[in-house]
Amino acid sequence: MAGWTTPYDLLREELTQRRDEGCRIPAQLRQAFAELHHDSDAWNTAAIDPLYDALMALPDDEALAAREPNDLAAIRALRPNGPRDLQWQPNDADLVDRLHGAWTGRATGCALGKPCEMWARKDIKSYLQARGDWPLRDYFSGRAASDGRSMGCAPSQREQIAYMEADDDIHYTLVGLGVLEQHGPGFGWNDVARYWMEHIPVVYICTAETQALLNLQNRSCRFGGRPAVTAAFTRRHRNPYREWIGAQIRADGFAWACAGKPELAAEFAWRDASWTHERNGIYGEMLVAAMQAAAFVEHDPLRLVAIGLSEIPQECRLAQAVRLTLEWCAASSDWETVMARLDAHFAGMSAVHTINNACVCVVALLCGRMDTFDAVNISVAAGMDTDCNGATVGSIVGAAAGRSAFRDDLAGRLHDEIRPAMIGFGRVTMRELAERHLAVWKRVDAHHRGITPTAAAPAAATAAATAAA
Q: Over the stretch 281-294, which tens digit does the pLDDT of each residue have?
């Protein structure tokens, strides 16, 4: 089964993924893949499927698997101590301002990074230098220069930008809001999946999300019968992208509804991520969600990172990489120096992997000193998945600052407007979305404190979700 790309490319990515999981891949299997041709065998499923099945049947590295579980209870058993609830009870005006800042930061960072998505750091720098725009301090210009290079996403370029254009990094934040409005704090992974199918055009769904959605549709029984589908199947079957960044970019809508409650935010993130991702793919969303929820209260970047790390397994590869990044940042406050070490350490890793991009966000927050302008610029100039990282960093610094303190150097030119390409969401202002998120936060907070039962919440939602995984 193909989805995001050809069967050949899925197998190629799976070889890398299984290697990353510590699996020992026999030489004969690697040789059989090497004998395939990337063009003429791109759709040769008769040759590819047996190799894929053999690859997935190989035993896991038991020690690494034990450090990197997918089950929520097991994840929590391996996490370090942390402040699970910051006991924040804001007034409506303060929370709306913070939510408005979070929405503004996410949109600003996303728009800034869209034209150079997937560019390497050196290519971004040379493009800007050729136009006299280095260091990055403005939206990318599409004007011609001596290098003859061009970039896409014209509505997000300096010459045209007037709003936040449609993008998956914004759509998934709207999903979080919509799912919570529709299902309340007791939502499950299947509620998220159904919401996708009803609201997001398939052309806006990528990599791990594409594969998981195909798996769900192929195993679901729409009219009668028990669906033979589990989160464990949808996230893994023919899905070599299960540790890529897709889940990490989906945290915000759920995390903001848990402002001040990092543990609950991480749980919501787990429910959202566990049907499309595994291991560090899940942890990326949990890490970011905890940081985003805490940023409404805690504004020190080191403490925010520590709170994020307190919600994921202490010895998973993501946690180890983040701690290493913190060491690099402690040794130098120059973000380019830190990024040079990061690029060298993660050479060969996909530019849309969870781990390296999460580390970029850490660099931007620390070296950018949580500034709503500097941190976002660094997150994009650092390269890799630029719109995703710009949006994530913008979300965190925006929640910490609030809209009233958010610098308008970039944000002002979006005119507070988002134009998504989703069913049920037309042109909307970020202020309106902040007010809707306020209502959701109140509902989640009341449920969390046991004040008001939520009719839409299934009994023992967390236990049921964990069992489904």
A: 999 999 999 999 99
